[in-house]
Specification:
By secondary structure, this protein is of the alpha/beta class. The protein has helices at residues 2-18, 39-49, 65-74, 77-90, 105-116, 146-159, 163-168, 170-173, 181-187, 191-194, 202-208, 251-254, 260-265, 283-289, and strands at residues 23-26, 56-58, 98-103, 122-128, 213-219, 235-237, 240-245, 269-274. The strands form two sheets. Strands 2-1-3-4-5-8 form a six-stranded parallel beta sheet. A two-stranded antiparallel sheet has the order 6-7. Helix 5 crosses helix 11. The longest helix is centred in the N-terminal third of the chain and has 17 residues, at 2-18. The chain binds 2-acetamido-2-deoxy-beta-D-glucopyranose (3 copies). One 2-acetamido-2-deoxy-beta-D-glucopyranose is lined by residues 238-239.
């Protein structure tokens, strides 16, 4: 009896000492690191559900919240990845590894971190509405600022694959036009690169395979991402927007350019769904579906 009590005390003690791994968050387009209504409420929820509360680092790309929000539209995604990599390297609390949770475009950005920035080590990667095969339209403006959104639509219409736009407009950098696949592969400065569509970078696969689990959340009633299957790595067939090619039928998977096939065969990819609009999950859904991946 005493022995069992001893073991129980011992376990409790160990968990109290070790705690859960730290967590890194990356916000979505139109949002920032520190909005109390968005990531702020997620941090509160994590702190309430996991005891002792883990260390949380919500990435801020820029010197302040305003810059962080603007950079989500206008700072080249590759520079954002470099910037975030430096922040992660500098944070000594992350040295032994961290779980990563990306919201919307923060999902594909954190995947780029896993591929390009393996230190400190990422443990689980949770992508909540990330567009891993890009987008071919923003049917509705995310964020509060409709002015910025309309401006971005204009720029995309002007010439999504013009180099001046590719270099400066984040949303152009993960724009995949199924009617211009060859152009996309040639000029897309971000998505075509991390999806190994221009050249094959073996480090991307080696690094990506180091993560434990890839958790992909798709929003079934998403009105912001076209097509929302991109959140599960699906996309339109070439020249045919009436047909979706799911991950398991894609070239990326068949040739296993990123290790997704290996991960899938080892049941390390979790395909989750929320029957809501983009990022509109409930607290209970987050507790039931995401918190378990953040606990150890
Ligand atoms: C590291 O984590 C501890 C405990 O959560 C916290 O008190 C400290 O401020 C963190 N350090 C940095 C650099 O954020
Ligand atoms: C929207 O963004 C534009 C351009 O940055 C800015 O001038 C305007 O004040 C913003 N509007 C709101 C409501 O925040
Ligand atoms: C898609 O259309 C382009 C331009 O018409 C053509 O060059 C390409 O071969 C087509 N691809 C497929 C798979 O039909």
């Amino acid at each position: 009896m005493l022995f069992i009590v001893g073991i129980i005390i011992c376990f409790t003690h160990i968990f109290a000492i070790l705690g859960s791994p730290p967590i890194v968050l990356w916000h979505g387009m139109g949002d920032s690191c520190c909005n109390p209504l968005s990531l702020g409420s997620i941090i509160k929820l994590i702190e309430k559900e996991i005891t002792p509360a883990p260390y949380v680092h919500s990435l801020r790309i820029g010197a302040n919240v305003e810059e962080d929000t603007t950079n989500g539209f206008f700072m080249n995604a590759n520079h954002q990845i470099d910037y975030a990599c430096k922040l992660l390297n500098a944070d000594k609390n992350l040295t032994n590894g961290y779980h990563a949770v990306g919201f919307s475009q923060g999902g594909q950005f954190l995947r780029a971190i896993a591929q390009r920035c393996p230190n400190p080590p990422m443990l689980n990667l949770i992508s909540i509405g990330g567009q891993h095969q890009g987008v071919f339209g923003f049917p509705r403006c995310p964020g509060d600022n409709v002015t910025i959104c309309n401006y971005i639509r204009e720029l995309l219409r002007f010439g999504v694959y013009e180099s001046v736009i590719q270099d400066h407009l984040v949303q152009a950098e993960y724009w995949q036009d199924p009617h211009q696949e060859a152009t996309y592969r040639r000029v897309s400065v971000f998505l075509a690169d991390i999806n190994q569509e221009r050249t094959f970078n073996p480090d991307y696969k080696t690094n990506f395979l180091k993560i434990r689990n890839l958790v992909l959340v798709k929003f079934l009633r998403d009105t912001m991402v076209d097509p929302h299957e991109s959140e599960h790595f699906g996309f339109y067939a070439e020249n045919n927007t009436a047909k979706i090619v799911p991950l398991r039928e894609s070239t990326l998977y068949a040739n296993d350019l990123l290790g997704l096939k290996i991960m899938d065969q080892q049941s390390r990819i979790k395909f989750l769904e929320s029957d809501t609009d983009h990022l509109r999950f409930t607290d209970q859904w987050f507790i039931d579906n995401i918190i378990p991946f953040l606990k150890d």
